[in-house]
Amino acid sequence: MTICSSKYPLYTYKLIKVSCPKFQVTTNYWRTIAAPSAPVIEAASARGHDSAVFLIKPTTSALSAPVLYYLVTETKSGLLRKVFPGSLGQINVSGLSSESTYIFTIAAVNVDGTSPASLQTPSIQTSAAPVVASTPQVALTCATGGTCVVGDRGPGGGIVFYVSASPFTSTGSTCDTACKYLEVAPATWQSGGRSVASDGIYQWSNNTTVPTGQNTSTVGNESGLETEKFNWKIGQGFYNTSVMKVAGATSSAQAAVLAYAGNSIAGQWFIPSANELNELCKYARGQLTGNVRVPCDSSGTLKTGTLNDLGGFVSSLYMSSSEWWIDGARYHYFNTDGFGGTRHRSGFKDLFPFIYVRPIRAF
Fold first, then answer.
1. What is the mean pLDDT of each run of 10 residues along the chain (363 residues)?
2. Tens digit of pLDDT for each residue in 300-332?
3. Which CATH number fits domain 40-125: 1.10.150.130, 3.30.1330.60, 3.40.50.620, 2.60.40.10?
4. Confidence at residue 352, expressed as pLDDT on a 0 to 100 scale
5. Distance in angstroms (rounded) separating the CA atoms of residues 274 and 268
6. With helix as H, strand as E and coil as C, how does the chain read?
7. Exposure b/e, 148-187, CB count within 10 A at least 16 = b
8. What's the confidence (pLDDT) of residue 201?
């Protein structure tokens, strides 16, 4: 390479040219063009199950042309890998197979060319791949968050009796706007889970002069009946139950169910709304549930008896949490007449102190 510069101290410049005129100073530079010498492998070993490491002795190469990278060849497969030098003269090759034997040769590359290949490395044996312990996948049950069908044991310890085709809202329940199921409390609910018993009798309320605040004015359309009100809806039982006892009044039904909710494993038990009670009646009598427009009737056999916690129903009048008028509420017979063709029945809140109740919950 030829550099041309000024002869005069007042002017400083350097130009690269093929040749310089007489009024400029000519300076020539040159170097020897030479590929690196063959690498000398001082050590070679496997690193774990998928890589190898090599310690390379410094390669003889012109200072102006250092080694740029190495070409590592597997002698068995002929696979060529381009590997850049690391610190302290080490180079690493990854992507090897576990429990396999390898022999390598290595060549060095700089701007002037490629060196001859090194001597072959000793055989390198990679180790076995580590075994990653897998966590067994436990299938979710209805009680632990899986899909439920009618008859499954629910997360509250009761039995699923209603599966909705689409999510419904149960304000106050943990499922909120994404509720899918209703489960009925087991027949142990009155004994705190200690023993099976038939359902007991309670009073809806001794209040007949103050409305609870339930929505009894908006017309409902779930059941298909013209008399239906909003507070009959599937999902309204939780709210209805929460307001059954107005100020200054008593409600032995609400007190019993809330006490059970406070002591149970899942809580949030409530007295079913009118439409929820319709589905519970069908379940209790062994009829198909899921379509609110189909009323419970006298077919099937009522789940009575105390041999297990699936029964405990009584062939008598059961209350809903749905207020009908200021002094009345909706009820239903679980005996042989079903809904008697008239669906829900109504009666005075305080004139029926001997009405049966069974809690339910939404999830």
1. 87 86 88 85 93 85 77 93 85 93 94 92 93 84 95 95 97 95 95 86 93 94 91 97 94 95 86 96 94 90 89 92 92 66 66 86 97
2. 999 998 888 999 999 988 999 999 989 999 988
3. 2.60.40.10
4. 64
5. 18
6. CEEEEECCCCCCCEEEECCCCCCEEEEECCCCCCCCCCCEEEEEEEECCCEEEEEEECCCCCCCCCCCEEEEEECCCCCEEEECCCHHHEEEEECCCCCCEECEEEEEEECCEECCCCCCCCCEECCCCCCCCCCCCCCCCHHHCCCCCCCCECCCCCEEEEEEEEEECCCCCCCCCCEEEEEECCCCHHHCCCCCCCCCEECCCCCCCCCCCCCCCCECCCCCCCCCEHHHCCCCHHHHHHCCCCCCCCCHHHHHHHHHHHHCCCCCCECCCHHHHHHHHHHHCCCCCCCCCCCCCCCCCCCCCCCCCCCCCCCCEEEEEEEEECCEEEEEECCCCCCCCCCCEEEECCCCCCEECCCEEEC
7. bebebbbbbbbbbbbbbeeebbbebbebeeebbbbbbbbb
8. 94
